[in-house]
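step 4 of 6: structure.
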Amino acid sequence: MASSNNSGETVQALNGGSADLGNGKKQIFLNAFDMSTIGHLSPGQWKNPADKSATKRTLNYWIELAKLLEKGGFNALFLADTYGGYDTYEQSLDNCIRRAAQWPMTDPTIPITAMAAVTKNLSFAITASTSFEPPFLLAKRFSSLDHFTQGQFGWNIVTSWKKAAFKAIGLENPIEHDERYHQADEYLRVLYKLWEGSWAEDAISPDPANDSYADPDKIRTIKHQGKYYTLDSRHIVDPSPQRTPFLFQAGTSSAGSEFAATHAEGIFVSSHSPTVLKPKIEKIRELAAAKGRDPRSVKFFGTYTPILGRTEEEAQAKYEELKKYASTIGGLVLVSGWTGIDLSKVPLDQELTAADSVEQHKVRSMLDAFTTTSEHVPKWTPRVIAEKAAIGGLGPVGIGSAKTVADDMVRWIQEADLDGFNIGYVTTPGTFEDVVELLIPELRRRGIYPDLPKGDEQRTARERVYGEGQRRLREDHPGSVYKYDRYQEDAP
Amino acid sequence: MASSNNSGETVQALNGGSADLGNGKKQIFLNAFDMSTIGHLSPGQWKNPADKSATKRTLNYWIELAKLLEKGGFNALFLADTYGGYDTYEQSLDNCIRRAAQWPMTDPTIPITAMAAVTKNLSFAITASTSFEPPFLLAKRFSSLDHFTQGQFGWNIVTSWKKAAFKAIGLENPIEHDERYHQADEYLRVLYKLWEGSWAEDAISPDPANDSYADPDKIRTIKHQGKYYTLDSRHIVDPSPQRTPFLFQAGTSSAGSEFAATHAEGIFVSSHSPTVLKPKIEKIRELAAAKGRDPRSVKFFGTYTPILGRTEEEAQAKYEELKKYASTIGGLVLVSGWTGIDLSKVPLDQELTAADSVEQHKVRSMLDAFTTTSEHVPKWTPRVIAEKAAIGGLGPVGIGSAKTVADDMVRWIQEADLDGFNIGYVTTPGTFEDVVELLIPELRRRGIYPDLPKGDEQRTARERVYGEGQRRLREDHPGSVYKYDRYQEDAP
């Protein structure tokens, strides 16, 4: 799986100095991708003595991780979350539990302030669903997170699809897919009203002589009466540094793309092939442009799992070692969940073809995601797919020296038009340490990675992406129509 | 307001050594009572240059507070919370906002891990409502908090009554009072099922040779179908040190007392007079006994605000200084909210009597709460009440040297049958520092306050109250019937 430099344009970026990654992009954003659970994208590594993912229930794990990421100059720590396990494989949660494939799971909001207390220039983005709680509760919690992290907070908006999650919440059936996105759109608009539209910038104006701390006339009561939500309240938290947290979204379905093109500032994508991603990214940028947004202000982050060594051989040896601990069934559990195909129904070594299946569309989409141009697999069987997915999930795995992996990442950026990566880990600690010690220095030598902040410099999550001063939503973001001074009482 | 030592029994406790506070109680529990807002129980002090409550949106405030409380040997930091402001006074939120009377407000769960990371023997208890979110969400969040605090987490269960909160959540009308408690009772039972009944103690049994981390057969799927809630899920978090957090409750209404006697391990009470509290506490202990619980295992914490000096004169001078900053209207806002009486309808200096009012019951109850035996107020007007409430809220204020205040607290314990106090602050920093430097050493000299833990000693929140080893619910607590080994599928 070591990457090949098969793009002529890459050479420029390799020579160091002020490289141009194409489309005006000069620098790569790296997020560390983790989850408050055991087998995140590489199930089975808990058996590896080097791996400490079973210690994620302690603060020490998170504090040490945050310090490492800040030391290396990561953009953000992104923490996925879910309310249910993967129960597509065998229509049961049993193997999800047994293989610790993203189960059990703690709440990612909880360790954030312990990490924020020891860092200054690292963002924290978490996944949260629009399907399960009233918007006011989330608005209050996230404003608090943005205050306490001093503007380092981001939100990965999901609408949730797992049956298990809906049963845990007490809803009989998942809301239908497209309907969920309509609901999510209204949810976001309620949040913009609270975050952007409720408080004037100068609502807090302490005036001790008049026993007056804040001016109620400058804090608007939001009256929202929509299809899904009703609310009649001021926002209970004064404006945090970013007001609206930096907004991420994942998913490239039709309804998902429309939603992402409207609301997302950062978009997570996963595929084994940049050529599969390229048209999806292009389409979302076009949709964003059609909505009046600068298409380049939508930043795309591809999942990418590096296995780094000081030499090619060292990296390859690491990969061979890691494979020993990978859980094939854990991989089947995750892929079945992600694709909606119960892979237990197909013999482990029988080739999967779209034509054979009653679920042609799903199988084709899965095979597309796994197929790369540089690799020739004789036949895609559940076993081959599971073993591939058990190291790095649905994203590519780059194996090699820092130079080789950097070349591969540059190729991805150029071929798929990415802006950065969500770096998955195989073991923790392990992968992120290697990125900090080997990969980031290589990217910096090429002039395509930000320097560490100087002295007291502290930027918010949004400033780190859009530049100093851009703490609040960009003017071309649809949330901006809800900003206090231009708020329309009859806005949707 | 300096207290008098009017109880003969107090003398024993004053002489140091192994004092007996009565009813077998040997030691006082002190919680620090705070809220992630500006004017908590003493509105207006934000104008006092000594007060830094407007910095509560930063982690530094909470980290310094937690360190101080641990240094002093406080039992817990208790953080109140709400989803709405006080809008009874003038039927509007305007003066609540203007006087910063518990508004705005951040989420108390957020700064907890930043505090837990710098402490070891301090509990964190927060208020959360049973009325606004599905139990599964709260179960996951609180299990996470109990894991990350290493068993230092407590929950003050509330059912919520503020109209403003229901309007923010999107519910047209508050649920009727008694109905709320029925709903809360079912909510708790769903939580016990998840926390106590879902996971066997040995469900996690890593077996690398068989690629097996946890045994799905030892993790029960909870199937709950009740009047208010439906759930069909395993708990998504493995057992935390306490499983069920230490349970607090406030409120001495009829439905509230029934609920508290069933579920609460700690109960918060507020009154200006121990003789008003005594029968209420007695009644709840009787109710608890009737349910098969040891009545002494229910611990009562009275709100108490000390104003301490090295001498009586110094304390009195502090009090006079603090009064300068107290907000009378802020006091009216809070008392109107707490009592349900809109005090704006009564002229500021007109005497309030129960007979005059259309709300006789509410007014009598309010006057009862304010009336003390040791103090003679010529007439209870809104102004007198507001000025009293603007320092220390509905609880007593003890002014004097450590000796005087300690005497007063001992008297309260003996007269009302309390187990400890929720210490309110007037300024922060200020009040809690004085408690650590002056009051706690005095209580320790009398042998009625726990020593600091030795060396590596670390107890959970529940162990600190019930003794070493009692990390889980006591056997006589009704949540214990849901424990894994004795779980009945048809339990309510």
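step 5 of 6: annotate
 - The first strand of chain A starts at residue 29 and ends at 35.
 - The two ends of chain A are 49 Å apart (CA to CA).
step 6 of 6: archive
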